[in-house]
């Protein structure tokens, strides 16, 4: 097996036992099959990244992932010249690496990236996309068969966060958004699916407890939508609470360390009241 073949094998994500597909994953699967440029938008913890990883695992596709932030530079993404063994050599960034090898690429938290970094992606996201390595004498990189690109974001455009939930996110301009041929608004899972996820991911969790946790989560989410609280309740929080509830033997103590201790005082009072009302346990 060649070094490249070994690398590709290592980059195939692991299948999650008992992973439960979300309804919107049908759109994602179709978009990947037809080589769409896909942007997944939704709150943290709703499964944007994990859904792509699981589809890649099922298809035995090598997957690269990069988390973008305010410190990510163009060189981080496309590559740079470095000194090695007494000479200067070019090292590709993760974007040309994925394009040249036909890998899937997740650009996570794309709404945190600086505008000049996002501008590098414009030609890649065209129908016949390509990348120009300006620092390498203008070399043109065209994607190999199999290359796919998926972006994830917590907010876009006019939906940019205005309550401090995702501090540091920026408003993506129309020219950038227009290049994504499929944009999926990832919603919270239906209650019955979310309860099933909890029971599959937390073995031994009673169905009644899973249903109760999901009811609490949905009431907090409704309060967030009404601006009664400035926090929301991700499926990740549900999993953390469920796991700790089995370890601690009660929902109240588990809620304190997984949910309430992360909140500001006002949100803690509201969310704590919701949890206490549903669980009947003093917090």
Model description:
This protein is an alpha/beta fold. It has 2 domains: 3-185, 3-Layer(aba) Sandwich (Rossmann fold); 191-279. The protein contains 12 helices and 9 strands. The strands form 3 sheets. The protein has a 5-stranded parallel beta sheet, with helices on both faces. The N and C termini lie far apart (58 Å). The model has no long low-confidence stretch (mean pLDDT 90).
* DSSP strand count: 9
Query: How is the CATH topology of the largest domain named?
Result: Rossmann fold
For the largest beta-sheet, the strand count, sense and barrel status come to: 5 strands, parallel
Low-confidence stretches: none
Under CATH at level 1, the class of the largest domain stands as: Alpha Beta
Structural class: alpha/beta
- What best-fitting shape do the alpha-carbon axes yield? elongated
**Quaternary:** single chain
User: Helical content, roughly?
Assistant: 40-55%
